[in-house]
Design brief:
This protein is α+β, with helices and mostly antiparallel strands. Helices cover about 70% and strands about 5% of the residues. The strands form 2 sheets. Strands 2-4-5-7-6 form a 5-stranded mixed beta sheet.
Length: about 700
């Protein structure tokens, strides 16, 4: 599903709608301005060029930044940096954008300018989404939305509605950047496959856009909600939201989003086999793209697919060849890959199997070149990308190509021979030798480069395979023990039940219960950790009382502690944190359960919560056990643990509980660690962001 880049509807953080004659006038008088007047003029000119001429906008934003520095205007310095970063994002220079956004964040953090922080954190998250680093993106989007709560914002808007007054400029900017932040987090969740969460965030963005009376924002939100329903296969809902979005966007004359929305709606009608309607919306999309000065690149594939549905294969191929020229001139590799895939289909349908194979090879070459730029965590996604249908298609085309090649082979050999003879007469021996040596040098360098790339990929795959083997060896060991115990005890109860007295039966059934409990705990932690690693657990942060979470988990674990006579101590702190409730409960439960496991009979487990560094809450769980061995310290929070040490009552464990804690703390923008209190036990701690006041 094609989609427009978020920043295309974020011109700037400040109002900037100006007519071209006003901009011309400002540019003429700019040399005669100074101070605040010059700064405001530079900002207005820069923002007016943002959508149409990014290079010119970049120049004026640099001047705006320099002028703001002269005036020591921190807010405008941060705004200038944020917009310079936005231009780099638009040009796909994500690393440069991240560096500049961090500078803007430093400025806004120093002056505690919350609307600016919401905007900057959200855009940092968007950069990481574009780089495919969804876990880091989630942390920054969560950080952006933790600055204000949605409830706080709605209550504030209700006050304005009841007093029948207009929103002031500060309130408008605040709602604007929050609308963007909710929208960007929704995009992140959509790409991660958390569609219900994405719809919820898009709807919040829509509500804020409606409060601003900004139909460009409401239209964008409606369009993205429609995209999600399209992906989910709910075509009826998707169509309804697409049509509503187009009405809003046409009222706002938001051409960029109109172009993309019409294109997506066209794809929906292709799926519904309503080709005439699909063609009408594809043509509208093309017109909107041309009106914005864009090359209308994404529409070409849609138009070609329409022609293929109409069996106009020659026309479809011409459209795709035009798209190929555009993508080559702009070095748009992702779009080129999609175009070559579509060309392969068009050529195959037209019967030109040799051309189809050539296009498929071009697509494969682009995918192979992209392999060197992906990180370790993306390799599984890449391996899953190539499905069986794609491979079958390639084999089929190779077979067709072989049949054609057989008949043309002799002709090609003769042609190659004649060309070689002609070249021998035309080129001197010296020139031929020079070309040969140069070609040989280039080939050697290319082979060396490819070998280095392959070595890097092999290293990644080898490491991933070793980690997988180590993980399964740990799980096999820890599952085998409780299962073996279950088998042995159950066999005794079945085969020798009549010879056992009451005490022996109690002992064996207690052992049976203990093994089953250990096995269930292991499987629960295993499943939770595996879902977390697969990115299927996304945090839903909210303001929660840490006292309530700790008290509830202590109540649940009293039975486990009571069996060993262990006292669980905790005093209320009155602290609220901004975190996912279920994840926080899982962290607390695992740490207290571990403390009970490694505390001797009649010991004490103390739980405390306090503020930390002014922005975080720190929760500590301290036991009165024997502390941690040096070997255990080195292998905490890792897979490289063999199997964990037994508890003071011979309790077993896998160590996965701490891995789950580490993942969940990280997902909620906190940290986890431990303190060794030998000989009086160990203390594990974690931090979470404080709730916004």
């Amino acid at each position: 599903m094609a989609r427009i880049y978020t920043l295309l509807f974020i011109i700037t953080m400040l109002p900037s709608s100006l007519k071209s004659n006003t901009i011309d006038s400002l540019e003429k008088i700019l040399p005669h301005l100074a101070g605040k007047a010059k700064s405001e003029a530079l900002q207005k000119i820069a923002s007016s060029y943002f959508g149409s001429n990014p290079e010119r906008a970049y120049k004026y934003y640099r001047n705006f930044y320099d002028e703001s520095k002269k005036q020591n205007d921190s807010v405008h310095i941060g705004v200038a940096l944020a917009n310079i970063a936005a231009i780099n994002q638009k040009k796909n220079n994500y690393n440069s954008a991240l560096d500049t956004l961090q500078l803007a964040a430093n400025v806004f953090e120093r002056i505690k300018y919350r609307p600016g922080l919401v905007f900057v954190y959200s855009q940092i998250g968007t950069c990481y989404v574009s780089l495919g680093k969804y876990d880091i993106a989630t942390q920054y989007h969560t950080k952006a939305l933790s600055i204000y709560t949605f409830r706080e914002l709605l209550d504030s808007l209700e006050v304005y509605r009841q007093s029948e007054t207009e929103l002031d400029e500060h309130q408008k900017r605040l709602i604007s950047v929050l609308s963007i932040a909710y929208h960007d987090f929704g995009w992140n969740c959509e790409l991660m496959g958390f569609y219900e969460k994405a719809i919820d965030l898009y709807k919040k963005s829509y509500q804020l856009g409606k409060a601003l009376k900004r139909k460009d924002r409401t239209g964008a939100a409606l369009s993205d909600i429609a995209n999600v329903y399209f992906v989910l296969g709910n075509l009826e809902k998707a169509e309804r939201y697409f049509l509503k979005a187009i009405d809003e966007l046409e009222s706002a004359n938001h051409l960029n989003y109109l172009a993309v929305t019409c294109n997506n709606l066209s794809n929906l009608y292709i799926k519904l086999k309503k080709i005439d309607i699909a063609k009408r919306y594809a043509n509208k999309s093309f017109e909107y793209f041309q009106a914005t000065g864009d090359s209308a690149s994404m529409v070409y594939i849609t138009l070609a697919e329409i022609e293929m549905n109409l069996k106009n294969y020659t026309k479809a191929i011409k459209i795709l060849k035009d798209a190929e020229s555009i993508y080559l001139s702009k070095n748009m590799s992702n779009s080129l890959t999609a175009t070559y895939d579509a060309l392969a289909t068009a050529y195959e349908l037209s019967g030109d199997y040799k051309a189809a194979l050539k296009s498929l090879r071009a697509s494969t070459a682009l995918k192979d070149s992209a392999l060197s730029s992906i990180n370790f965590s993306e390799i599984n996604e890449l391996l899953a990308f190539y499905d069986v249908d794609s491979k079958n298609k390639e084999l089929r085309l190779y077979k067709k190509d072989a049949e054609i090649t057989q008949s043309l082979l002799r002709q090609e050999e003769l042609q190659a021979f004649s060309q070689a003879v002609i070249m021998a007469f035309l080129l001197s021996v010296i020139v031929v030798l020079a070309i040969y040596l140069r070609s040989k040098s280039k080939t050697r360098k290319l082979i060396e480069s490819k070998n280095l790339e392959l070595e890097g990929i092999n290293t990644y795959l080898k490491d991933m395979n070793e980690r997988k083997d180590k993980f399964f060896s740990i799980i096999a060991h820890d599952i085998r023990n409780p299962l073996a115990s279950l088998k042995q005890v159950s066999e005794l109860l079945v085969n020798d039940n009549m010879n056992l007295d009451e005490d022996e039966r109690k002992e064996f059934t207690g052992s049976l219960n203990k093994s089953a409990t250990n096995l269930l705990d292991l499987l629960n932690n295993l499943l939770t950790w595996a879902r977390s690693q697969a990115g299927r657990i996304v945090p839903a942060p909210e303001n929660i009382s840490i006292d309530v979470v700790i008290s509830q988990e202590i109540e649940l674990l009293k039975g486990q502690a009571g069996k060993k006579g262990i006292a669980l101590e905790f005093s209320n702190s009155g602290i609220e944190v901004f975190a996912d409730y279920n994840m926080t409960a899982t962290i607390v439960r695992n740490l207290i359960s571990n403390a009970i496991k490694y505390t001797p009979n009649f010991g004490v487990v103390k739980v405390t919560a306090q503020q930390h560094n002014g922005e975080y809450a720190m929760v500590k769980v301290a036991d009165s056990g024997v502390g941690l061995s040096e070997q255990a310290k080195e292998k905490l929070f890792t897979l490289d643990r063999g199997h964990s040490e037994r508890g003071t009552a011979d309790e077993e464990g896998s160590g996965l509980g701490l891995l789950v804690c580490k993942e969940f703390v990280k997902n909620n923008a906190g940290e986890i660690g431990f303190e060794d209190n030998v000989p009086s036990g160990a203390t594990f701690y974690f931090t979470l962001p404080l709730a916004a006041q």
